[in-house]
Amino acid sequence: MNTAISSTATAAAPVSGEAAQGSSPRSGVPADASRTAISVKGLVKHYGSMLALDHFDLDVHRGEIFGLLGPNGSGKTTVINCILALLTYEAGAISVFDRPMTPVSYDLKRRIGVVPQSVALFNELTVEENIDYFCSLYIPKREERSRLVREAVSFVGLEEFTRFRPGKLSGGLARRLNIACGIVHKPDLVLFDEPTVAVDPQSRNAILEGIERLRDAGATVLYTSHYMEEVEQICTRIMIMDHGRRIALGTANELKDMIDLGERITVGTLDLEQDTLGRIRALPFVMQADYDGRELNVVCRHGDRNLADLLDLLNASGTSTGHLISRPPSLNDVFLELTGKALRD
């Protein structure tokens, strides 16, 4: 069995009624900002001489899907392990559902589910037996456990694979089984650490839809991923961290408003003159403009008339235009500008 942030060690329990209603960019149902699911204040953690967490703060509201982003080595996994009381730390305080989290807070841990990045399964057990084993850590009654296992199997869409062993499953199906083992006992809080690594698009969509269903059923979700589009799709709020510190916090749109980049404009043209390109570069909203003989690519600051002013200049110069694309900044643009590196670095 792989035990990296094992869902057996800390998972609590698909979802009790104590959690608040959830929200997402899709549902529009607000999270309960007045009630805190996770509170981390001034957390300091060293590994030898290396500072992993530098007075780190985090507040996750009940009923939201909260995205935690950071490059490798930024401290994300350390934060998760500290929240789960799997690591000690030198300073700071952590509470879960308004109660201090300690290594012996077993009643709190029963309310937490963990889906680790490394698939944590018993290869000698079938799909159904794996889920039942993890459920048995919290639910002693076989009859109740049997019902919960059936619900978890249905939730992740593994009905046709209950007698399979993990080694016979595709990577995507193994990830789904990993999720079932982490949520079978119905947690109020679920921590997902890179749950879609190396899975096919169909399985990725199924996993993301499942996370949203957990939220809709009342769970709070803390979600880490290297895939920006996933985070933007499902997360209510997003924190970017690096070097153990918080860099930025907000909704996807709020984060995009924090950077200079406003949009990228691509115009298809075969006759752009150099003097016209020079005038484009001189426009006050233009950060960069390049032409490869077929396409004009312009990086713009925030502005309401960027596209209109650019087209006016092109038309006035007699430049013919073909296809036209205007793209808003991505979360990866935000991350790159705020941290100086790509998320996957």
Automatic annotation (TrEMBL):
How would you classify this enzyme at the top EC level? hydrolase
Instruction: State the EC number(s).
Output: 3.6.3.31
Q: Which residues cross the membrane?
A: none
Which keywords does UniProt give here? ATP-binding, Hydrolase, Nucleotide-binding
- One MF term from GO for this chain? ATP binding
Q: What PANTHER family would the database entry show?
A: LINEARMYCIN RESISTANCE ATP-BINDING PROTEIN LNRL
Designated name of the protein: ABC transporter, ATP-binding protein
